[in-house]
Task: structure prediction
Amino acid sequence: MNLATAAEAVVVALAITGDGPAFEELVRRRQAPTRALLRRLCRDHALADDLAQETFVQAWRALGTLRQAGAFGGWLKRIAVNAWLAHQRRVGAPLVDLAAVAEVVPSPESPLAGRVAVERDLDAALARLTSAQRACVVLTYAEGLSQSEVAEATGLPLGTVKSHISRGAAALRGHLSDYSDDGDGGRSDV
Result:
């Protein structure tokens, strides 16, 4: 069987039985999206890579607990979010090193200056959110998960997720009010 062309559910089922090459194929398929999620959460590429590695190690160890092969993507996302939240609790560090973000600002003449400035401002605004709010907001708006999927990924009750999304989005609107098109202090789609 060619694992590279096999359906993910088949590859997951093989990996659950302890098939190492099947799990390697899952890592190959899911590594980039997992790293991207973690980079959005922590905005530190090296830390995101470390957390992604930790995520896959934990996934390999716990793969036998996965009940439905088709649920692998959400299950892996939950492991990644929990790895990030555990790191945040362990170190008690801010979500973003604002000094490091400020160092990457290009010259005003650069075509990337506007985009980098927006990303820097968004990073600064996200850094003001609690870890749980940031996770819920990023999973909802950047990852496109529903509120119930965010609850499943984070292990938080649905009502708490809704509260974190609402409060986090309101805080972001306040912090990013300079970007409002209508001058009302925020955008309704954040």
